[in-house]
Fold each of these.
Amino acid sequence: MNDLVKLLQSASSVAVFTGAGVSTLSGIRDFRGKNGIYQEYDADRIFSLDHFHRDPSYYYRMTRDFIYNLDEKQPSMVHLECARLEQLGLVKGVITQNIDLLHQKAGSRRVIELHGSPKVHRCLRCNAEYPFGWAAEIVKKGRVPRCKHCDGVVKPDITFFGEMLPVGAIEEAAERASEVDVMLVLGSSLVVQPAATIPLYTLEAGGTLAIVNQGETPLDRHAEVRLDDLEDAFQQISRHIRRPSS
Ligand code: ZN
């Protein structure tokens, strides 16, 4: 048994914080990593609000094969285990930087999406809402989704550059972080805001930090448990964390 398993066995509440590293296990490319989207695409432009207003077709063309094909992606063992630990009553919520909907697909109920989400698309003119599946069908045909009511351009609820991060989600994440015994960071290098500060709420409230990430994070020295390999860590978790809800 590794130290992470021991820590989770002694905890009564855990919040999970996830970044791109969790989704690369599902075959989703991360943005800034070695084989990241940024190597090939100009992500600053894809997710620029200004650019979207000028030419929405650019965003939809560029993201067709990594956002609008998400229905073909399956949750990894890490996503599935996070959902199982929530069912056991141990995990009180998942806070994620990802926009791939895989935690929800795995069965996690309480997911806080810090960078918004493509699960809802919204008309920029009249605010009408549309689900992901509706938009995906149109985008896959090479078209820009337009509002059925007013013909306005429809934009995903992903937070673009030039937009405010969703304040409600950040507040909720901070609250969740300060309530739990253990903050478990998975596959995030914790460099962008608000990722860099949310785990601090747990520490300030007297809780413990555990980090599983390939590569350093600025909070490593505060972590009681620090591991590199996600798959390894979660094989141990799936084998040993079996307790009923308490
Ligand atoms: Zn509209």
Amino acid sequence: MSDIEQLFNANRNWSERIHGEDPEFFSRLLNQQTPEYLWIGCSDSRVPANQIVGLAPGEVFVHRNIANQVVHTDLNALSVIQYAVDVLRVKHILVVGHYGCGGVKAALNNNRLGLIDNWLRHVQDVRDRFQASLAEVDDPNERVDRMCELNVMQQVVNVSQTSVLREAWQRGQNVTVHGWCYALSDGLIRDLKVSTRCVEEAQEVYRDAVDNLRRR
Ligand code: CO
């Protein structure tokens, strides 16, 4: 059996199993999706959104790109955020980085990989902003991990500063932006404690979190 046939096989098995467990499952999802969460994560194949937090289809709206970035001019990410906030009315936006992220590592170490260097330049901007904090870390792997955390914090601020979130908060909508980092080594998520419910809070928690990193 070819690799691709195997996927169709697995799909048929999955569909049958789900249908057996819950005959209404597919018809229920067909009529509506009402996820409470938007996941913004890395494209890394080892960080599948639904599985890690035990959510079923229909329960999390997902956007992934290399190094889980929210760039202010990225129409793709912005459209996902706008749809999630304005139409789906998600209650939580989860910005989820992961330790040992290849994109972050490449950005940190100036590795040249081609076109993607331009995308990772945004991570390098974060790196340059926190040069001092990063220089304190001697171990190269730990430095990558700190950079992963700093990158998540920056993306939380970026999400919070989008016109979508500003307007949602202004009209009193209940939506919180969180910053998490997932560890490939044990499968656990670490909360970076930068959750924010308004633009001012985003700046504040960001400053505190960066101070904490320095003191660590
Ligand atoms: Co990654």
